[in-house]
Amino acid sequence: EIMSGDWSSDVCSSDLKEELKKGFRPKLKKSVKDIADYDVVYIGSPNWIHTLAPAVMSFLEQHNLKGKTIIPFVTHGGGGMGKCLDEMKRLAPQATVLDGIVIDGKKAKESAEEVRNSLKAMGQIK
Asked: Which helix (H) or strand (E) holds 37?
């Protein structure tokens, strides 16, 4: 059980804001050992109160992405990209961070064509 007692989105939102404010970064169980072998890295995150989820921040801080092209993809519940793109650029300053793909979480299952079109526009697929 993750939480017990009365739960509301206000409590959850308050907890998330506090974690972000304190700079919480979870320890990752694994790292990508051969990240140097990749030129393009796709990094996904939910829009977590207008920014990246702390686990994604941990990943960006723990991996050398110098010279890489990062293609962000973000799901959201109404906040769009928020500050996720800016945060990726800040945490991976020596990488090229493209505009990425933004997907409404409620429509994620129906977003295959939208994702395909975005990847085509970025020159990642034909």
From this structure: none
Structural tokens at position 84: 């996720």
Per the listing, tokens 């939910």 go with 46
Residues in the chain: 126
Q: Please write the tens of the pLDDT for every residue from 51-71.
A: 899 999 999 999 999 999 999
Rounded-to-integer distance, Cα 56 and Cα 42, Å? 12
Angle between helices 54-62 and 84-91 (to 10 degrees): 30
Token output for 126:
């034909």
Tokens of 62: 């723990």
CB of 47 closer than 8 Å to CB of 81: yes
User: Which SS3 state, helix, strand or coil, does residue 82 take?
Assistant: coil
Task: Return d(Cα 112, Cα 45) in angstroms, integer.
Answer: 17
pLDDT of residue 3: 34
Find tokens 């085509």 and name the residue.
120
User: What does the alpha-carbon distance between residue 60 and residue 65 come to, in Å, rounded to a whole number?
Assistant: 8
- pLDDT tens string 3-29: 333 333 444 556 666 776 666 787 888
